[in-house]
Amino acid sequence: MSTVATTPLPTLTPKDLSSDQDVRWCPGCGDYSILAQMKKALAGLGIPREKFVFISGIGCSSRFPYYMNTYGFHTIHGRAPTFATGLKIARPDLSVWVITGDGDGLSIGGNHLIHAIRRNVDIKIILFNNEIYGLTKGQYSPTSRIGTRTKSSPQGSVENPLRPLSIAIGAEATFVARTLDVDVNHLTDTLRRAAFHKGAAFVEIYQNCKIFNDGVFEYATDKSVKADNTLYLEHGKPLIFGKDRNKGIRLKGLDPEVVTLGNGVAADDLLIHDEKAEEPSLAYLLSRMVYPRFPECFGVFRAVERPTYEALINKQVEDVIRAKGPGKLEELFASDDIWVVS
Amino acid sequence: MSSVARSVEESPSESHERGGPVRHRVEELDSVVVRFAGDSGDGMQLAGTQFTNASAIFGNDISTLPDFPAEIRAPAGTLAGVSGFQINFSSQDIYTPGDLVNTLVVMNPAALKTNLKDLEKGGLLIVNSDAFTFNDLRKADYATNPLEDGSLSAYRVIKVPINTLNREALKDIRLSPREVDRCKNFFALGLVYWLYERPLEPTLRWIREKFAKNPAILEANTRALKAGYNFGETTELFPVQYRVPKAHIKPGTYRKITGNEATALGLVTASILCNKTLIYCSYPITPASDILHALAEMRRYGVRTFQAEDEIAAVGAAIGASFGGALGVTGSSGPGLCLKSEAIGLAVMVELPLVVIDVQRGGPSTGLPTKTEQADLLQALFGRNGESPVAVVAPCSPADCFDMIIEAVRIALRFMTPVILLSDGYLGNGAEPWLIPDVNALPRIEISHPTKPNHDGQFMPYLRDERLVRQWALPGTPGLEHRIGGLEKEDVTGNVSYDPINHEKMVRIRAQKVANIANEIPPLSVNGPEEGDLLVIGWGGTFGSITTAVNRARRKGLKVASAHLRYLNPMPKNTGEVLRRYKRVLVPELNCGQLLLLLRGRYLVDAVGLNKIQGKPFLVSEIESEIYRLIGS
Ligand code: SF4
């Protein structure tokens, strides 16, 4: 609850964005960091608090809206993008954020996710990927790796995992990024980039589930190994990674390969990241790079400009009203042939 | 089943203002008028005579008017060569062949030109579209093709390529092309037989006798008749039932309107009355898609349509739009309503306005997509998990869809609740005259949104007014930031609460809020005596047949009345009292007895059902016979 009548600009602090509700995630859950960085990212945007709306589905991550002192809507399993779409059509002035998880967004809600993305509705979809069902107490999810042992897969999951970013790119996403719960600065920056994108922004956050899938992203978070297992993307820069910054990604035919710089391999031979590429082939290729064969990429994979869904719809309305004038009910009623009974 | 064809059903006249149930006695015209018209060589007299005979054998009273061309051998295809045959057939005594034609069958442009003036506005016009070539049009003095220039928009035009279809049906019979074409009157006849459910047998018998010596012609005419009949059955071109829409009607300006058109117009009107943007979210489904089509054309009125990826997305987007302060509406048919149920439950929980349209069709599952049924009533009332009360309303005629969708919007906005409108395929596709309302006389829907905290400087999203309605605070309003969701709410604060006592309290509050709607709806009115031997009570599209049947029975001196529930949840406050004023209660429904279950359960009345589940509306005679069976005649 708030006692503030108006929100002064631009002095919003992360604390202004905290609701009075007790945060109920498990101690050590990666969600805490995401919540903290979200508040930090939003506070600096210059958008008044009342303009933010957080919409979620069902799952651990979907409790998120309750903890933000913004407008919020905790909806039903998998459907958050649909509510966000309707809201954004009605209210293009709002900054609408969808908080979802791997089960919510890719299993029960996969259909809505791809359609919200393909329409390029100006919403920010933040998918907390912990590769597990947490709230239902530990079943494998659509992103769980083959062999993941859970209560519902005691002998190991036999299902191919989905790659969330590949799905988003395949759905014609205009903004695609990946970040990590523990990399707080990168997380804040990525959320901010998403906020500034005009159109559907899809961000996958690797999030550690302390209770049911602890350490599943250790290869990307453990200080001793992460530099060799991760690659931070920078627009216009070659794909270089490794503790000694001496490894890179080169194209061999249509496939990427890891090469070591030196011995005749120069930075010029490497793939150059281009987040603005017209065709999403490079972004897709990067989204398919999976540990341990490859370092996994973080940062903005793709950021291109396209008209938003709600802008196009609203333009149709404005265009026809400009051309023909606003409609009058009397004319509408008489648009069919009429006759008079006296 | 009665032996009376459904086409003789009579409809009460529309002397009431905007399509609601009649509250006063009306004059009724219980007849249907069909006219066949074509070139004198097209065999129209034969068709008309056969139709007359079939109807007579079937058991109707009949009256006919042959219309021969002045010249026996006028040039083919000219205005002078047009021949027509009109028949009025009815289940009661009739004395004229009818003034206006309800259904006109024309075999060429000349027949159209000379007969169109007699076709009622909104009437059915069956056209042999194969006969509208440049030459045919020229012979009939048409400068442009009336099938394409919009001049027939006052009619329900059904274009049938009769020549082509007939040739196709007869293609392997050894007859000359000319002889084949001469059978097309039987194709047209077969088609109209299907439309009015005439028995084929009298005509088949006549063909057998007449052409006994010419097996090829016998076979050709038999096949043409059956092909026309089968075409009617398999095509989606025709409405399920023909209604006789007018006799003595109130003065004013009219247009024809289908239920789906009226629903669309009503939504646009409601959005203007409440000063909100209409956002109509829908996934294509028969028979509701026409509402989406109509609204997609109305961008000039500020309407936004959203064709969602599925039914769930459609309802989700509608709720999201409502959350943002727009008029969020979703429309579908029964299978779609199933898919929307979880989201409707959410709207119950978060107490946001939502209008859901269900244009019912035969079920369960995919069922009979193009046929009508009333079997979603209990789904609308109870088809969600938990105690999940919603308001339910149902129009009683195509034009009444206009009024009831406005009612649905009014209730949804004023009570912050989902409202389900139960239309059906019969109403949605059926057309009738609509007395165009005076826009300025329509009552506004007053809505307000809070701009300030409502409780000690804080905003309590679940603080309620005396009607138990919470405030509709819109995102973007400074200081009113709040969270809503599907988890149980604490009273007043809206915080998540698992407290058992609070849960029971909230369940009861939500139920009481919906019950309170009864304070703002009209009482149930009765057509006929205020008390008596029998009350026939229905809901939805059965209004016409029930009212007509009851009026007929009353003319025979029976103490019978009818009542029609346009508000199904909550029901009008006097419903129980009305039911108890009659010795017996009959509930005709196109389902297995859903309203019956509600009335018996809620009001402890020993009502009986009359149930038909054939994808078709009631014949008046079916209800009438049941009335006589119950209270004697
Ligand atoms: S179950 Fe896992 S994801 Fe859910 S709150 Fe606990 S640690 Fe976080």
Indicate the CATH topology of the domain at 14-227 and 290-311 in chain A.
Rossmann fold
**Which ligands accompany this protein?**
iron/sulfur cluster
Largest sheet of chain B: 7 strands, mixed
What proportion of the residues of chain A is helical, as a percent range?
25-40%
For the sheet with most strands of chain A, the description reads: 8 strands, mixed
Cα(first) to Cα(last) distance of chain A is 61 Å
Structural class of chain A: alpha/beta
Number of domains of chain B: 4
Give the SSE map.
The complex is a heterodimer of chains A (about 350) and B (about 625).
Chain A: H1 31-43, E1 52-56, E2 71-74, H2 80-90, E3 95-101, H3 102-108, H4 110-119, E4 123-129, H5 164-170, E5 175-180, H6 184-196, E6 201-206, H7 218-221, H8 226-229, E7 230-232, E8 240-241, E9 247-252, E10 255-260, H9 281-287, E11 296-303, H10 309-324, H11 329-333, E12 338-341
Parallel strand pairs in A: 1-2, 1-3, 3-4, 4-6, 5-6, 7-11
Antiparallel strand pairs in A: 5-11, 8-9, 9-10
Helix pairs in contact in A: 1-6, 3-4
Chain B: E1 11-12, E2 28-29, E3 31-39, H1 44-58, E4 61-67, E5 82-90, E6 101-106, H2 109-115, E7 119-128, H3 134-139, E8 156-160, H4 162-169, H5 177-181, H6 184-195, H7 201-210, H8 215-234, E9 252-258, H9 259-273, E10 278-282, H10 289-296, E11 304-307, H11 311-323, E12 327-332, H12 334-350, E13 354-360, H13 377-382, E14 391-393, H14 400-415, E15 418-424, H15 425-429, E16 431-435, E17 483-485, H16 500-515, E18 526-527, E19 532-539, H17 543-555, E20 560-565, E21 567-569, H18 575-579, E22 582-589, H19 594-603, E23 608-611, H20 620-631
Parallel strand pairs in B: 3-6, 6-7, 7-8, 10-11, 10-12, 12-13, 13-15, 14-15, 19-20, 19-22, 22-23
Antiparallel strand pairs in B: 1-2, 3-5, 4-5, 9-16, 14-21, 18-20
The structure holds iron/sulfur cluster.
Iron/sulfur cluster (SF4) binds near residues 26, 60, 134, 211 and 212 of chain A.
